[in-house]
Amino acid sequence: MNIGFACLLGYFFGSLPFAVIVSHLFGLADPRSFGSGNPGATNVLRTGNKWAALLTLLGDAGKGLLAIIIAAKLGAGETAIAACGLAAFLGHVFPVTLGFKGGKGVATALGVLLGFSLALGGWVAAVWLLVAMLTRYSSLAALAAAASAPFIAMLNHERIEVVLVVAMMSLVLIYRHRLNIQKLRAGTESRLGEKRVSQPPENSADN
Fold this sequence. Notes:
Blueprint: H1 3-14, H2 18-25, H3 41-45, H4 50-73, H5 78-93, H6 106-116, H7 118-135, H8 138-155, H9 160-176, H10 178-186
């Protein structure tokens, strides 16, 4: 498999909008119409439907993981697999299915990391979970996980192309959380589990 086809494969999977699909199946409001306006699991959780949020999380993570598994099964080399993972992440962040206005890619990035290495994905997930449990801020947990991911990749002795892809995803994740950073500094960031279904989108996102 060449790199171009691997990128198309990854982007296709990444563009699947599970937050919108799951919300429709559960009869919930479009996640782009309330809370942060973000088509991701954290915003779906604001409806109070934990099952819908869980399925969205699994779908968003699973599409990153599945893209890499399929690429590997089709005989892609290490560089093509790394490119496929990056494309899946970018497909979630900039999906053609949603007019290139997607989520921030935290769950999809985790799925990609797990596809690269279970240890890599596991350690980064542990960072997210620890910060989320201590602070109940999904955005702060995502920022901590993103900042630590390239270093964890290097400590885990990942291939150079994997380290580079992880670093690029981390930079995009941090940039996409710039509004959340402002709100964290101002003390106005919402915590996990808070409902905002009745409020209009804030033009920011969580995952």
